[in-house]
Amino acid sequence: MFLGLDFGTSGARACVIDSEKNIVWKQHIAYPDPASQTPSDWRAALHMLLSALPKDIAAGLHGLAIDGTSATVLLCDEALEPCSPALLYHDNRAQQQAEQLKAIAPDSHTDARPKVLRTVCIATSGLAKFLWLTQQIDVHHAAFFLHQADWLTALLSGKPGISDYHNALKTGYDVEQLCWPDWVMALPHTHLLPQVLAPGEVIGHIQPDIAAHFGIHPQCLIHAGTTDSTAAFIAAEVSEIGVGVTSLGTTLVLKQLSQHRIEAAEYGVYSHRYGNLWLVGGASNAGAGVLRNYFDDAQLAILSAQIDPLQFCPLDYYPLTRIGERFPINDAQLAPRLEPRPVSDVEFLHGLLQGLARIEAAGYARLAELGAPALKRVVTNGGGVKNTVWRTMRERLLGVPVSAANHCEAAYGSALLCLNG
């Protein structure tokens, strides 16, 4: 059996599958406060999930992989104790550092080498956060700069300083040449950067003391992980070019396979290496998270049932939870547009859902504009997949069939990652 652990924006999930890809166990842990989550919260959630494993399943585990939110990073010491705050995926305090990177990063239009990621030259990138941390924090005790998934994986493997090329992408790793580029290595403190493996590659066995404590098979292999949105794509088991995968979680993430790498940081578009293909997409700060500010699950179900998804809503919303957007518009100062609010909650929810559907449609249009394959259909995963009214609304705006993935959770994708790794 194989365990996938997903550390997302609001909590952590576990999924165990057998060799036939059947789910045999699932569990979920919410963070105490998702907006101010800390490494202590992640570690506590990790231990709670491992403790909850049924004894027979824990004893039969052969592999484990972890995904985490992209560009969520921290500094830690030799014992893996954090020696900096964790900067979360949407943290944009590194504005000055992003400008520094723009001044020194090679221009992909003039450099003869393969495309350089201009995505690292924005404040929310892993590399901008690396500069911010190493400029703000006393690095004397720091031994490693790690992404969220790297740190959690190291707690289990006992082998720190290892990442994967999905998480390392926004930290400047060259996913074509499979190395840290010279211009990145010329920055101060780059000895803290991790060694980078392929997602799913075996790191080693689980630490004996951890295996004994949680009753896990001592030969359980720990695999290099991935990002949460890429794990969600893996979970959908899409291999056809032209099929989009939309993850309707706290944020809205769009991805599709392409034969060509596409990079457009000015629109928040980037590509992950994905076997012999490229996984191109972007992540909006809008998503189901904004719905949680106004409605609970029961209210969403009752109100959605009263919406006609084929009817146009005159409300022109851009439903962000806070100032700043990444994709399909990359504007750190873009403000939420959530007014006017009608008296009717049904009309208000209709406007929110239509606004999110418009962002999704604009996102796929942006990918097509930049050279992504024509969209044939869209597969959906994440918590928002349950809302059939929203799905019909999205289908109308996208102009292609929209279906739910057989498996909707990133944790399932991480389990597949170590099964196939």
Describe this structure in words.
The protein is an alpha/beta fold and 421 residues long. The chain has 13 helices and 17 strands. The chain has helices at residues 39-52, 55-59, 95-104, 126-136, 148-157, 182-185, 208-214, 228-236, 288-292, 297-304, 345-369, 388-398, 410-420; strands at 2-7, 11-17, 23-30, 63-68, 73-76, 144-147, 162-164, 195-197, 202-205, 221-223, 226-227, 243-248, 252-258, 270-274, 277-284, 377-381, 402-404. Strands 1, 2, 3, 4, 9, 10 and 11 form a 7-stranded mixed β-sheet that branches. Strands 14-15-13-12-16-17 form a 6-stranded mixed β-sheet, sandwiched between helices. A hairpin with a 5-residue loop joins strand 2 (11-17) and strand 3 (23-30). The protein is globular, with a radius of gyration of 21 Å.
Question: Characteristics of this structure?
Answer:
421 residues; alpha/beta; seven-stranded mixed sheet; six-stranded mixed sheet; globular
Secondary-structure map with pairings?
Elements: E1 2-7, E2 11-17, E3 23-30, H1 39-52, H2 55-59, E4 63-68, E5 73-76, H3 95-104, H4 126-136, E6 144-147, H5 148-157, E7 162-164, H6 182-185, E8 195-197, E9 202-205, H7 208-214, E10 221-223, E11 226-227, H8 228-236, E12 243-248, E13 252-258, E14 270-274, E15 277-284, H9 288-292, H10 297-304, H11 345-369, E16 377-381, H12 388-398, E17 402-404, H13 410-420
Parallel strand pairs: 1-4, 4-10, 4-11, 7-8, 12-16, 16-17
Antiparallel strand pairs: 1-2, 2-3, 5-6, 9-10, 12-13, 13-15, 14-15
Helix pairs in contact: 3-4, 8-13, 11-12
